[in-house]
Each structure stands twice: as C-alpha cells, then as structure tokens.
Request: fold
Amino acid sequence: MKKRVLSLSVVCAALLSANEQKLDEIVVTVQRSEQSINDISKSISVVSKEKIEETMPSSVPSILASEPGIYFAPNSQQTGQVVIRGFSTQNNRAPLFIDGNRVRGRNTLEYMMVDPNQVERIEVARGPASSLYGTDSFGGIINVISKRASGDVFGDFAMSDSYISSQFSSVGKDSANRLQLGFVGHGFDALLGLNYKTGRDYNTPEGKIPNSSYLSRSFDFIGGYSFSHKHRVELQARYSHVNAGRAGGQFAAPGMASKQGVLRRYMTTDPITDKYLSLGYKGEIYDNTNLDLSLYRREYYTHMRIIPDANKNTYNDVYVIGPVVYGGRAILKHTGDKLDTTFGIDWYHQNKDSSEQSVNSGKRNITSPRATQLNIATFGLLEYNFDNGAILSGSLRYDYFNTSVKINELDENIKRIFDNLEGDIKNKKLTYGLGAIIPSGIENLSLIANVNSIFRAPTTHETANISTAVTNATYYSVPNPSLKPEAGMSYEIGLRYDNDAIKAELIGFLGEYKDLIISKNTGRKASDGKAINQLQNIGRSQIKGIEASLAMQITNELSAKTNIAYLRGKDKDSGANLPQIMPLFGYISLKYKPEFFANSFVEYSGNWAVSRTKVDETQERKRAGYFVHNLYLGKELNSIAGFKKFNLNFGIENIFNKKYASPVVPEAINYPVSPTNPLLNPGRNFKIGFKANF
Reply:
C-alpha cells in the first residue's frame, strides 16, 4: 500500500514537469495578519470552503484528517480530538481559535459548537507557535475563519450570500440544515445563519453504536460597518445548544457495549451551551500600517448525565458552570519595502465556577473549587525580504499567568485535598521562534527551516484536578500543587517546491520536551479499592517525524493531491512509547472537473494508515491498518425554481464498508475490545446535499 501511494506521487510529478496549468494562491492569517502562504516558513494547511461544501463533513475535526500530520480521534459523531504531530486538543496542546480569538475552557467538547456550514475556511499551522500564540501550541494551532457577507459594501442595499441548504447522511440518518441571510450596502454588511443538525446512533460494520445520537441548534451573526475602504468595525454573536451522547473515546471508555451487546456505561451531554460575543476593528491607520483590535466574551454551561454501570439503578449528574472567558487582542503591522514588522498584545481571563454533582437527582454537592486564570502577553514578529527571494523571520513573546484556586465553598473532606493550592500560582515565560525560506538555486525550489521554543502553563482544570466515581468509574484523581509548566524546543528543516502547477513540501521535524503533564497512578488506593491517579510532570520526551505533501493541477480539468506522514514518540527517561502517536498514514485524491459538463466535479479520495505496533502498552493495544475509499460528485445548476443558483452534491464514504478504528482514539485496556473500545469509525455512508441561493 505504501509503495502504491508513493509511486503514484512520483509518476504524477513526472507527468507534470512541463505543465502550464495554475493552482490558486492562498492567503492566510496564521501569523496574526494576512499574507501569502508562500511567504511563511511554517508548515500550513488550509481547508477551503469549496472542499467543505463538496464533501459535506459532519464535523470540523473530520474534515481536517485529510491534511498532512493531522488526525481525528472521535468519541462520537460530532466531537472528539484533533491530533497534530502527536499532540491532542484533548490535552490542551493543539488549541482552537475562531477568527483569531482563542476558544478556551471545554477542550473535549468545543468542536461540537462549530458547525461546518458556518465556516469559510480552516487554517492549521502544523508545528509549535508559542512565540505568536502563547500557551498550548505544542502540535500547532487551528484557526477557523467564519463566513461573512461579500459584495459591493458601498453600493445600494442588496442581498448577498443568501441561501438555504440541507444535507443527509445514511450512516446515522443525519440531517444538517442551514438558512443563511446576508446583505450589503451603504457601508453595511451583515450575515445571519440558523443551523439545525440531528443524527441517530450511527452504523458500523459491527452494527449500530449506542449513545452516539445528537441534536444541535445554533445561530451565528456577523455584521460590520465600513467607514471607508480602509476602516471596518464588526460585531459577531454566536449561540449553540447541543445534546449528544459520548459513545467512546476519552473518558467514555470502555464505551457502551461489549461484542455481545451488554451495555456498560452511558455518558451524555444534555446539554452544552456556548454563548459568544465579540467586537472588532480592522483598518489602515497609516500608510502600509494596519491595526487589528478585538474584544470578546465566551460562556459555557455543561450538564452531563452519567450511568457508571448500566446493571445498577444509579445515575449521576455533573454540572460544569462555565467557564466564562473574556479576552482580546491588539495587533499592529507595518509592511515595508524589505522589512515587515508585527507587534501585538493579547490577553484572556478565565473564570470557572465550581463543578457540582448529584446522585439520582439528589442534593447537588460542590466537588471542585472555583478557579480563575489571567494571561497577559506581548509579542513581536520581524520578517525581512532579501533581493534574492530569501525571507528570514524572528518572533518573540512574553507571557504572564496568574492562576487562583478558591476552596472556601468546598466540603471539608474535599477542602483538605486542596489545602496546598490556596492562593495564587504565577508563571512567566519568554518564547522565541526563528524561520527561514532560502532559494536553493534551482528554480522554484526553496529550503525552509524553523526553530521554536515552546511552553504550556497548567490550565485551571489541571491545577484543581479532582474526580470521583461519578465522572470516572475506574479511578479517582487528586490535585497536584507542584505541577510545573511544560516546555520544549522544536526544530524543522525541509524543501518546498512551488510553481503555477505544483506545490510540494517535504519536512522533517524533531521536538524535545520536558515536564509534560500526564495522569499517572500514584500506587495508592481509596477506601473502596479504586486506584488514585494524579497529574504529574514526566522528565523528558521526544517526538520526531516526517511529512510530505503534493498538490498538482494536471490539466484544466484534472487535479491531484497526496500527503504522507510518519511519527515516533518516546519517553526519554523510561524508553516507553508515548501514547496517541500515529503510525505511517496519509491521504490521496484525484479530482476531475469536465469542461463538457460545466460546473460539475467528480472526486475520488482515500485515507489510509499502516498497522500501529509501537504503543504505550500501559494504555493502548496494537491497532490494524486500513485503506478507506470515498467518492464525491456534484453539479451547479443555473437559475432553477426561482433560485439564482442551485448546487447538488453526492458522496459515498467508506465505499467498501471497512471496519476500522482511529489509531489514536483512546481505549481502556482493562476492558475487552468492543465496537466502542476502541470506538469504531462509521461504515459505508451515502450523502446527498443541496444548496439553493436566492
């Protein structure tokens, strides 16, 4: 299988040596301002609006799995973790941003709150970005760019980007619907979206996955006023309300059922809500000098219903009040003849009220303390453009953290656990990054290199970490007042080839880390015999790997993409393999847009991975490899039934109904293998969707 993929890449590249077709230039914001992706030394992936609409993904993480070095570890249909270069969003090491503002506080569930139909594009910086984005960005950062109204803002009032759309998937009888209304004119622009998604328990080759159904309702609004072509203010509001089962994966393992269908454990989110409001400004305040301002507020509320053992008549409720997060940024960029300079300040204040739990709808007891965290940072980026096309960049960032844990409201028995955490915990960190793009002397071929320091401050949840059998059926967790920030260094070197028809990249990277925070067994047991775990720093670890990607415009009608990645992760003190490290894996696609059948396409794609044999045997089992085949096709129609434009899309995913589980989805090895341990991916899935513009 590996030979087939690599051979196809080589053959296609050879055929394209004299190609004159063109690939589109891509502009991204991952370096905190707009610039061409070709001027950035970091490895960047971009998922376009076109791809989102054509493949009709059920969630944002699922669409990212087609990008190099990125994988999706689901715990149900709508949510899960994104894993970038071995680091997971679940473990706060690959943070999510929306329009440049940090999403913080519900890392396990936050992707449920983003509907793919709200998204204009997704940008991913693969590799550390601490010197620009601060804490958590060990594996990279994910920035979701929201849809906005387009058109002549300064003309007369007119409808813009208005449509209704609906999508249906057979695997779980899923339905995703959106009504979008937009207008522009007289300096104003506005876009309102109403979303409704629902799905039943989804099918796999082993049958239905219990407790995987969901219901999601949300709206999004972005409105702006442009004083001129150079100045615009913006108001953004979002609200999401999601009910969903968690069928497997992190915390839900060992999942719902054994092979014999014996129910074990339920965990449902009923509901989680997200309220978001932001105010922003972008403008050119002097010649070639742009200012970007943003203030935002986000508030979460989560109620979880847990049945630890389906054979017993007991259920538990967990209420997570908050967090409420306030934040903002101020970024100033000057574009010079040779030197571009960017300076910024960003901050957030996270307030997490105490969590509450009850048994069989009884008294709600406070089980974890209220905690707050303040982060204030300043950063700078210098980029120098040489006459020969070389670009050198350097970034520097200083972060200050103040974490406070309040224990006064706790039960006396629990309060004693937190005695050493009373008061404020302060962390300070200076990080830096260096990057280079150097012409090789061969036309269109450049050498790229990056060196980055990395850090991650413990979150409020980690600082005040505690759990009981209500939230975990196999062990208790106790806090650790001695947790230190994680730190590390990352090194990248590679080649980039870029002409009008071919974009290719080969990257090797090495990360050296210390004090990574993981959950470890303390060797002690509670009075009921359950183990006691604690978050602890481990000494030294290393992740290294290689990524290769190739995009080709073969003719006006035919294009192709492929990528491949390989990782190794080790605990350098013990020699053990790190968990959630992907084996050799990749993606391939071939897309045909025939001229004789205008505005239509057919695309084949395949996701694959070899067997995973290098595992942390204390947490994981070995996992089989797979190759999953998909087919998509669509047609854009002209005016029909009163609509200006009408799009029809079809898809068949996992065509051959392959039974497989993500190589990095968590499992509980003290329980038998079952369809939910590790959680199986969906089986054969037929999709159909339409979008009607008016």
